[in-house]
């Protein structure tokens, strides 16, 4: 079973607690439940008259009590601590020299040890000696002992102030301690002091930043004691020690751990620790919750890592390995798959703990990243607002020497009045020159009265700063006396309360504005008591109800509310808490008896100790009409979707149908109401189909990406197997923030059947092509061969010779025709995936050579050099040049046909020109000659040659055009052949 690391001591606080006790100037000791000493700090040991705490440890408290107090211990102290957990009072202890009367405070938690605190020490004849010893101890102690009055004015500080803060002893006496406390900590200190004033028995330590003489801020830990019941201090005695960086880190860790543990029950966050030596893993309860495991499961690091989403698993594994191996911290936001199969986004942190250069353990946290981010954002905003508020606060300190009339202002007070630092000349007259003329007499009279009575004073008045602006200030001052009891000086602080005064002055205006807003509010507002009696109402509410305002006073809510009885309303109001707001919908009745729908927000407030209810009422007649229209629109949309002949559906993360149109329901053989809420496993008899659908659904939801399924089968309720072409898209269900998918499936059964028919026709064409280029071509070649033999046996002047020539010509044309037909069929059967890199020069040279051999009376020349370039095509590229060259010769009416071929290139493409000296082509025929079956002028051919040229060129990504040659003939240009 996993253990809570808090119980295993993962977050150690012992050193922090010990430092807090040792640094305290208050005597403290810890005893076990048998009243045996476990610990005592130096102050406690000193009061008891010993020099070493070891002299007290492992002995019982009664060993140090005077005989008269032993009975008191058993009869009073022990029962009180057992029953209430605490006891305060005086006992006599047997010190090493003489008995002492000591006021002790005992406190105990439910299961913990007993804390003993020395509240005060009383002696008889040895009082002077004890005081002298205590004073020596205070001055030699590393802790600063400070005596404050209830307003926070420093009355005394021990010698340690020189060592710790750099001030001369007594330099801060008379100043307000708050002037030296960091603005960010000042509020907390004031609250602690106010709480201690209200409850003098409250004890505890406080940590804050204090300004040194060199203006550096250092952290102090202070234990304060309310001495209002122990004159002559009549205020507070505080013992402060400087916190080292190491102790400060420990304190922060303890505070964070305490906060962490307290917030575990309300925040989705857990803590863990991995021990590198034992390879054991500890989890807090929240980690089990996040993983979806019972606390009876023993956590293992390998299993924990495997619980992460496969796409993120390597990230956490690498980070965890680096943490153990290199001591590298990490913070990752990853997906975690819980034991229930739910995918969560978590933020996990790892912090290696290094001892003697070796990583001994890794501690970390795991939490819901959304909650953490939102909390961080809120904290950052709150911190920024707090910082701005503190920076905006203005206050200044001052001193007035009654005997010399010298006045001292600190820098902050000068800045408060817009003065240059150091420009105040330090006289009473200078001070009065800044006081508002209307306030001078009152200020002077209050000061004289305080001096005469030798008391402090507090008053509010206005300063006039250098720019002539009024600054309201609240002055608080206390006198300081010399040894003879005469007033030496007054020390005080001025707090800028200008905003407060302006607020007070504008309060009446605000109330008037509020009343105006109340009356002019766009919504009705009614104030009533817990019985429902109307106390106040604005004009909008009265108008909506059709009453004059005075007619509604004294009426009950039940007089106009129709959807709730008076008893139901009273029960509703009684269940509400002060400050709580609830909303509900109902109907209100007008004076004329008609009703209208309303939305009401009710807020419970406290006015002079009485429960009141402020109701904001909005007429929602138009909204209800709009909602009705929306419902009608949704109904129409549903009808439209149901008319779509394709399957449209929505499934949630569990594979359940959330929505299905009529087409979907028809395929499943049930109604849309019956299909929604069910899974494919419940609807389909074919388990393999259901599993295939579920796999695709999960892929889409988990990846967040759409998926195109080209072919999947669905067995309908009639047993018919249909072929579907499906698209599945990630979808978010409105209102529940749940992942889902939207599916759109088209029945392509007939389309697939047609495609299979086309494929069969393609196969048949392939067979025909083989027959044309093999069987027919072979027979034609036999005809040609025998015709050539007969030609040699017949006289050239006989008519038979002419017939043989026609046979040979027709046979040769038929051979060319089979070649062209074969090429056309090959093009029709080809796929662009067959394209490769073809050597252009070789393809052209081969065809030029072949044409020269076939047409001996023609002149075929190559202009320039054909470059060695590769083009994207296939072996049919040669057919392009063969047909163009033969076309230029066969349709040439000159005795000596002339054909020239040239090549030009760019970085991306190649162009080939073939020019002839033939009759040329009229403009009206230039485009048509490339059409299938279009013959040239006076041509006996089929027209397939040029059609093949254009088809092949366009498949390669190029174009073929024809233009006039100069002076006669045609130019065929094949351009745009892509280079590779």
Features:
28 helices; Beta-Lactamase; 5-stranded antiparallel β-sheet; transferase; phosphoprotein; disordered N terminus; elongated; EC 2.7.13.3; alpha+beta; 980 residues
Explain what the structure shows.
39% of the residues lie in helices and 28% in strands. With 980 residues, the protein is an alpha+beta fold. It folds into seven domains: 14-250, Beta-Lactamase; 264-383, 2-Layer Sandwich (Beta-Lactamase), CATH 3.30.450; 394-503, PAS domain (Beta-Lactamase, 2-Layer Sandwich), CATH 3.30.450; 521-619, PAS domain (Beta-Lactamase, 2-Layer Sandwich), CATH 3.30.450.20; 628-747, Beta-Lactamase (2-Layer Sandwich), CATH 3.30.450; 748-829; 834-980, Histidine kinase-like ATPase, C-terminal domain (Heat Shock Protein 90), CATH 3.30.565. Strand 18 and strand 19 form a beta hairpin. Helix 25 (799-829) runs parallel beside helix 28 and helix 26 runs parallel beside helix 27. The radius of gyration is 51 Å and the shape is elongated. Its EC number is 2.7.13.3. Residues 130-200, 382-454, 510-554, 633-704 form the PAS domain. This is histidine kinase. Residues 771-975 form the Histidine kinase domain.
């Amino acid at each position: 079973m996993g253990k809570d690391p808090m119980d295993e001591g993962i977050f150690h606080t012992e050193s922090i607690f010990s430092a807090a006790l040792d640094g305290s100037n208050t005597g403290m000791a810890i005893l076990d439940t048998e009243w045996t000493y476990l610990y005592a700090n130096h102050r406690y040991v000193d009061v008891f008259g010993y020099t070493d705490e070891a002299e007290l440890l492992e002995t019982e408290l009664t060993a140090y009590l005077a005989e008269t107090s032993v009975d008191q211990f058993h009869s009073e102290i022990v029962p009180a601590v057992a029953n209430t957990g605490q006891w305060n009072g005086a006992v006599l202890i047997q010190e090493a020299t003489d008995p002492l009367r000591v006021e002790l405070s005992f406190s105990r938690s439910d299961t913990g040890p007993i804390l003993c605190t020395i509240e005060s020490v009383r002696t008889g004849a040895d009082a002077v000696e004890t005081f002298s010893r205590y004073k020596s101890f205070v001055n030699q102690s590393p802790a600063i002992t400070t005596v404050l009055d209830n307003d926070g004015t420093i009355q005394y500080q021990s010698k340690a102030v020189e060592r710790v803060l750099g001030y001369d002893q007594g330099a801060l006496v008379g100043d307000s301690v708050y002037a030296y406390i960091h603005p960010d900590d000042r509020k907390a200190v004031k609250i602690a002091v106010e709480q201690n004033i209200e409850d003098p028995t409250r004890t505890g330590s406080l940590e804050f930043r204090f300004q040194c003489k060199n203006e550096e801020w250092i952290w102090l830990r202070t234990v304060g004691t309310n001495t209002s019941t122990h004159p002559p201090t009549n205020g507070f005695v505080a013992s402060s020690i400087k916190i080292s960086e190491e102790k400060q880190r420990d304190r922060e860790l303890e505070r964070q751990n305490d906060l962490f543990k307290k917030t575990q029950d309300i925040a989705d966050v857990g803590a863990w620790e991995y021990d590198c030596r034992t390879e054991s893993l500890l989890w807090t309860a929240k980690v089990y919750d996040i993983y979806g495991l019972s606390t009876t499961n023993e956590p293992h690091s390998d299993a924990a890592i495997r619980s992460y989403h496969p796409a993120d698993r390597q990230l956490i594994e690498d980070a965890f390995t680096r943490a153990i191996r290199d001591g590298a911290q990490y913070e990752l936001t990853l997906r975690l798959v819980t034991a229930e199969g739910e995918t969560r986004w978590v933020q996990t942190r790892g912090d290696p703990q290094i001892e003697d250069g070796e990583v001994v353990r890794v501690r970390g946290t795991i939490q819901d990243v959304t909650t953490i981010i939102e909390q961080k954002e809120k904290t950052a905003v709150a911190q920024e607002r707090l910082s701005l508020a503190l920076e905006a606060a203005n206050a200044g300190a001052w001193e007035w020497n009654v005997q010399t009339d010298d006045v001292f202002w600190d820098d902050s007070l000068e800045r408060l009045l817009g003065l240059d630092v150091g420009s105040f000349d330090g006289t009473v007259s200078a001070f009065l020159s800044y006081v508002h003329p209307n306030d001078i007499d009152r200020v002077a009279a209050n000061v004289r009265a305080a001096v005469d009575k030798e008391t402090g004073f507090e008053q509010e008045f206005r300063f006039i700063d250098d720019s002539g602006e009024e600054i309201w200030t609240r002055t608080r001052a206390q006198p300081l006396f010399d040894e003879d009891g005469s007033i030496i000086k007054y020390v005080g602080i001025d707090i800028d309360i200008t905003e407060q005064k302006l607020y007070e002055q504008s309060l009446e205006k605000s109330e008037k504005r509020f009343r105006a807003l109340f009356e002019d509010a766009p919504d009705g507002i009614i104030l009533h008591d817990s019985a429902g009696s109307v106390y106040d109402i604005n004009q909008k509410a009265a108008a909506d109800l059709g009453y004059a305002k005075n007619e509604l006073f004294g009426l009950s809510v039940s007089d106009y509310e129709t959807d709730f009885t008076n008893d139901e309303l009273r029960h509703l109001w009684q269940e509400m808490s002060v400050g709580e707001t609830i909303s509900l919908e109902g109907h209100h009745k007008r004076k004329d008896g008609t009703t209208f729908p309303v939305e009401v927000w009710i807020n419970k407030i406290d006015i002079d100790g009485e429960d009141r209810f402020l109701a904001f009422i909005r007429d929602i007649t138009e909204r209800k009409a709009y909602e009705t229209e929306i419902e009608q629109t949704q109904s129409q949309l549903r009808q439209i979707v149901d008319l779509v002949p394709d399957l449209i559906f929505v499934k949630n993360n569990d594979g359940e149908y959330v929505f299905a149109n009529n087409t979907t329901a028809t395929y499943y053989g049930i109604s849309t109401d019956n299909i929604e809420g069910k899974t494919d496993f419940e609807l389909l008899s074919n388990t393999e189909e259901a599993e295939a659908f579920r796999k695709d659904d999960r892929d889409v939801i988990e990846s967040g990406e759409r998926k195109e399924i080209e072919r999947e089968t669905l067995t309908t309720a009639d047993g018919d197997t249909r072929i579907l072409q499906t698209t599945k898209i990630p979808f978010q269900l409105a209102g529940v923030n749940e992942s889902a998918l939207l599916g759109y499936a088209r029945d392509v059964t007939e389309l697939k059947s047609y495609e299979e028919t086309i494929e069969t026709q393609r196969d048949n064409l392939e067979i025909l092509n083989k027959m044309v280029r093999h069987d027919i071509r072979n027979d034609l070649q036999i005809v040609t061969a025998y015709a050539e033999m007969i030609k040699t046996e017949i006289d050239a002047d006989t008519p038979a010779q002419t017939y043989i020539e026609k046979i040979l010509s027709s046979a040769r044309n038929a051979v060319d025709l089979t070649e062209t037909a074969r090429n056309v069929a090959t093009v029709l059967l080809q796929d662009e995936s067959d394209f490769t890199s073809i050597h252009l020069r070789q393809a052209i040279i081969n065809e030029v050579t072949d044409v020269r051999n076939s047409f001996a009376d023609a002149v075929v020349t190559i202009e320039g050099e054909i470059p060695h370039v590769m083009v994207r095509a296939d072996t049919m590229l040669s057919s392009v040049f063969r047909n163009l060259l033969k076309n230029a010769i066969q349709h040439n009416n000159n005795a000596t046909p002339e054909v020239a071929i040239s090549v030009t290139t760019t970085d991306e493409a190649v162009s080939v020109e073939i020019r002839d000296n033939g009759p040329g082509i009229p403009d009206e025929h230039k485009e048509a000659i490339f059409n299938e079956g279009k013959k040239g002028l006076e041509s006996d051919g089929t027209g397939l040659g040029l059609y093949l040229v254009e088809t092949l060129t366009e498949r390669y990504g190029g174009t073929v055009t024809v233009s006039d040659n100069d002076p006669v003939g045609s130019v065929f240009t094949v351009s745009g052949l892509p280079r590779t």
